Amino acid sequence: MCGPFCFRMVRWPAVGLVGRGRKDARGRRIGRAFTLVELLVVITIIGILISLLLPAVQSAREAARRTQCTNHLKQLGLAFHNHHAAYGFLPTAGGPDWSWHMTYINGQPAVAPKQHGGWGFQILPYIEQEALWLGAGKTDDLEKSIQAISTPISIMFCPSRRRPEVVVANCWYNHPNAGRSYGHAKNDYAAGSLNWSITFADGRTVSVTGGVGPVVYSNPEDTSGYTLYKGVVGWAEVRDGTSNTLLLSEKRMNLARMGTMQANDNEGYTCGWNHDTVRYTDRVPQPDFYHESNYDDSFGSSHPGGLNVLLCDGSVRFVSYSVDLEQWKRLGHRQDALPLQLP
């Protein structure tokens, strides 16, 4: 006999997958199997559901990547503000061109306007990369420079476009030439100072030595001893207001040439006064594109519909590709004295 806690096994009758089924010779019920037509209908329904779900999944993933890109720009903006707090001026675009290694004085990284390297190198202490800025344990200035050039920085990349990328190539810098191959870490963000003047729709041209944006060209004394420009810019020189002026944004890229040393994606994030790190603001931003060899020095992104823009006040705006060109010019100019109305 079973005690009070004894359970009896209950046998439930088998039930067919579809319909009531039939019985065999012994009276046992046999479930009816799917027919081929029924199986195809089920597969079709599943396919339709997946096709409806995939765009939503892709949209959610892109929204997450765009948010991450926004956070990267905010961190870079905070680094610019911290640099300004430390020195009283913003990092520069370096110069006089891409062909200079990073500048060290008595073994220490030079600060603008004496630094040939660009803004990407100058903000390293403020994005938790001070050790890399100081040389990462290297004792020779050239080795310190190579270490910085070849080390990828994750927040310099938009996750909608690519993972952190380093391409190895022979040294083609002139000051000095290392005479060997090493990595060049890329970047996806640029400042808007390639224009030294912008002409607006009313016919007025506003010129600014060193670039119309807040991240200016800087030419320390070159090998000929001739100094072209030694300017630096502080917030006081951003006369249109920090909430009305572009600091950094995403740069337009040829996706067919990712992973190669294309013309505006080769020196990398550290280089001074180069299309890798500085772009034009008199051209409307456009999406990334595919082409066998072409490149474009406009701003743009891999995000559908627009691009992220870091303003001088540290905020990030998502700006549509349909933005009016005149408004985009005004956004890129730090002292045009024209009203700005972004959608």
Summarize the structure.
This protein has 343 residues and is of the alpha+beta class.
Question: Would you kindly provide a written description of the structure presented here, covering whatever features stand out?
Answer:
With 343 residues, this protein is α+β, with helices and mostly antiparallel strands. The chain is 23% helix and 15% strand. The protein has 5 helices and 14 strands. The radius of gyration is 29 Å and the shape is globular. The relative contact order is 0.14.
Please describe the topology of this protein:
Blueprint: E1 18-23, E2 29-32, H1 36-87, E3 104-105, E4 108-109, H2 119-122, H3 130-134, H4 141-150, E5 166-170, E6 181-185, E7 189-191, E8 197-199, E9 205-207, E10 246-250, E11 286-287, E12 300-301, E13 306-311, E14 316-320, H5 325-332
Parallel strand pairs: 11-12
Antiparallel strand pairs: 1-2, 3-4, 5-6, 7-10, 8-9, 10-13, 13-14
Shape: globular
* Relative helix content: 10-25%
Nearest-integer average pLDDT = 89
First-residue to last-residue Cα separation = 82 Å
Radius of gyration: 29 Å
Give me the secondary-structure category: alpha+beta
- Low-confidence stretches at least 5 residues in length (pLDDT < 50)? 9-19, 223-228
Tell me the major beta sheet: 4 strands, antiparallel
Spatial sequence of strands, sheet with the most strands: 7-10-13-14
Count of individual beta strands: 14
SSE order: EEHEEHHHEEEEEEEEEEH
Compute the number of helices: 5
DSSP strand content: 15-25%
